[in-house]
Structure prediction request, 1134 residues.
Amino acid sequence: MTIKVHARLKSRKVMILCSIIIGILILITLLAPWIAPHDPTLVNLAHKLKSPSWEYPLGTDHLGRCTLSRLLYAARISLGYATLIFLSALTIGLVVGTLSGYKGGWVDQLLMRICDGIMAFPSLLLVLGLVGIFGHGLKQVILALIFVQWVYYARIIRGMVLSLREQTYIAAAQISGSSQWTIIRKHVIPNVLPPLAVMGALEMGWAIMDISAMSFLGLGVQPPTPEWGAMIHEGKSYIRSHPELMIYPGLMIMLVVVTFNLFGEALSERYGIKRNS
Amino acid sequence: MAVQRKRNRKTFISLFVTFMMLSAFLAGCTNSTAETTVSVTESKSMLTFAWPRDIGEMNPHIYNPSQLFAQSMVYEPLVGYEDGGELKGYLAESWEISEDGKEYIFNLRQNVKFSDGSDFNAEIVKRNFDTVLQNAQLHSWLGFISKVEQTEAVDEYKFKLTLKEPYYPTIQELAVVRPTRILGAAGFPEGDDTSKGVAKPVGTGPWVLEEHKVDEYAIFARNEHYWGELPKVERIKVKVIPDAETRVLAFEKGDLDLIYGEGVINIDTFKQLESTGSYETNISEPVATRLLVMNSKKEQLADERVRQALHYGFNKQAMVEGVTSGLEAVADQILSTNFPYTSDIDAAAVEYNVDKAKELLDEAGWKLPEGKAVREKDGKLLEIELMYNATETIQKMMAETLQSEYAVIGVKLNIVGVELTTQVERFKANEFDLNFFSNYGAPYDPHTFINIVATEGFGFREAISAYPNKDELLQMIAKVPQTTDEAERQELYSSILESLQEQGAIVPVSYIKKIAIYQKDVADFKFPANRDAHPFTGISMNK
Amino acid sequence: MGIYITNRILAIIPIFLLATLLTFGLIHMSPVDPAEAYLTAAHIQPTEEILAQKRQEFGLDQPLYIQYLKSVIKISQADFGTSYVSNKPVWDEVSSRMSATIQLALGSILTAIAVSVPVGFLAGLKKGSGIDHLSRFLSFFGASIPSFWFGYLLIIFFSVKLDLFPVEGIGTWKHLVLPSITLALPLIALYTRLLRASVIENLEKPYVLFARTRGLQEKLILGKHVLRMAISPMVTGLGMNLGKLMTGTIIVEAVFSWPGFGRYFIEAIFNRDVPVIQCYVLLAAALFIISNLVVDLIQMYIDPRISSKGITER
Prediction:
């Protein structure tokens, strides 16, 4: 028992720490235009590959752009699009999963077969395939990521809806004549939210990693937009003379992904949700 | 409990067996590769060279993924292209062209043997041309192919080519690496259709393919039957290293003797390696011109003043210097002067002048509203899109620079990176505002470049459609290949190129150059005059 | 049981058909004209006649459902068409690169096992110890380090600075070390965590208590029983992660110039070499489906009570 309380306390601490980091990241995302010392896409070839100075706190890249500004703006892209992916996938998954679990019958069959088809592929690989077929670019990557992600939400939500349907209090609500929508709103959603929060935190980490992996391969974010994966891709050409150009963005990815993973972990411990690997 | 344990043991055993099988597979893999590593004896005069992709099939009559430089090592043309556009006999010692420019007679070299010892003669030349002509459609990009009427082996060492109409660049086009180089008799497959593959890579060239491990390496050995000067190194090993950084790291470790090519390593890396003084470096003459093509069919760009403003509005000198670290030179002409017929072109160079650019835009009606950053005309923003090849670092960096520079004169430049396929497609479909392009280089230019400009469906003809003298230009271009008089030809070329450039739809940016970097023990390196050919002629190693 | 297995195997067929339908549909929705893509990739300047000829050759002039049926029949015979770029059968191109990728995958699985089994096991035994902290560190950072970044760090440190391993290439075991470690890192993270959890779980099981009261040697209990029991979830994890591993090889092969299947795939994406992309995606789906089935069957074999648990993996 004491161990459990200890673990709870620890997970609380982790959660607070993670919340602070995530809060800072969100602030950076929102305030980037005001806190960044320079325009992240402003090319100044006369200042290329400069070492850190007052003017350029982290130096400049191969086109004389301010590295710090680029790192800060890149947080916007990564966090912004990861959130977009998460919300879109969640929305689609919520609609499909609820529909499927609630209606059952052929609707359920059809929707679940579509999920099977998509889940027959390892997700990042399907993303690569989609980008290969439809051409590369951030838009395609985002759409592809949403396309492969919603099915997992749909599956989980369907499962939850199914198990909730069996619960007596819902049956009671049904008997007492509440409308379907009220049942969903009052009983289904509150039960579904905590596990979704856990998934969301983990999803953010994955999405950020996937976006940067695609950009690293040159298939995602296109120049001059700053993005961490793309910055590693560009910086690797200077790995011997200016390794920091690729080290900084790598550290940023790590920091963000670790934070979201820890946060998800702490959340799941908090709500006692068992996490499948 | 006992049952469960027993089950577990079974799983364990079956897994163990699976693993052993997999490991055996792994061992199989490593064994086979280990053997080949042993067979490659580290010969003293083996030059190791890295290339981004596998050499592909060694077939002189096909295109990608076969690599041009490798094809040029094994196979030779009748005529070769030398510095300054001089055409030199290779397998043909000399040639005669009839008065009407339709008949070409080649006197073939007599002491030539293929690498398998078989004889070279007019018969085998005819056989090669005939198999190529069988697939004439495939090769129609090469002008003379569609004009061939007849091939004939006049006698053992005399080969005759008859054309339907005069076409002056024929000899120059014979110097290309593919598809008209000569394959030996043993190389022909059944039915002689080499477009489906060759039986054996037999050529007359200085090198013979000795060993090839797809996607890993290829080893070429010196052709001991070679008719010309025997290469000084015995073997050339071509390692496949797709990643530029990895190539550099391998070179620094001494695993490679030579890195050579266009854009094969990052320019700043090249400069940095050069500055260490531990290696020899070399930069070639211009091999082609990097051009910025403006689509005059687009509304904003139809106005010559806007095109000129975009030309005045960027600091070419600083951009080329900054982006390429001075490796490429600023280009003031569409074709550099080391190509035939380009030496006395008289187009004025455009100097960087922001005020002039702003003035021109104002004149054209694009005004900058108070407190805004982008010019407007009739409520429309001056927004232009630049398309570039996303995998080409220099295009990418220049696009980013231009975007920054045009913002100063109030032009919003949107840059769009696409893959090569899309770039070509969109250029041809005329779906672009600005695009990067480069001419083809030796031995294709100048005639191929102006031919492309005039041909429908390649993008240029449409791009220059707002030129007032368009029809006249097209007529002149059509006339060039049929000329038989040198002076007339020169005059035509001069007026075509001058006119193309002066109206500002084709902006020369920089002259593309090749680089070479090699270890100190490599000597006598020389860039090939033919852009596609291998650089190993005369190269030696002092160890 | 036999019927169940047969059913499970038969159930693969519609899923795989779904996968082919999906790929087919996507390819046909894409704006690329295969004939034109072929010509561009082959650096042939397309004229109308060549285009028409190629379209006919590719069967693009036939109705869609016939094209689909034909493609399914071909795929079932391992005929994935010809690569636009090399003009050779895709299957030949792919199978010639397969051994390099398998070598890399096995190398990384072995590395992952060699690291995660001892670390995870000891961490499970000694909760809160130094090695437990190490395991937590590994499982968090291993899952969060971008492999494309980590690979370059390894190259810089071990190849360039220390000159211990070659920078690129394939052939000896030395070539295999750095790519295997890079690829193994996320697996190490996962397995360490899995094993640790499962060791802790098993230690609380009655059979351990029982063995202890019977006075069996602690070493024997741990080594022979706990470890063996704890490893079985790892097997499941291994099967389920083959898909992830396959995606991992793409990036690692790009970093280390490994002449495998993944690098070929990336090249195909840049060249829009659609037959190769299709082949890769379908093979991945096949591998993924089959490995999930095998895992299912193994699980059923271990514990017959699990009859048809759906397995989901991202």
Notes: Confidence is low (pLDDT under 50) at residues 1-43 of chain B. Chain B touches chain C through 51 residues (CB under 8 Å). The radius of gyration of chain B is 27 Å. DSSP finds 15 helices and 21 strands in chain B.
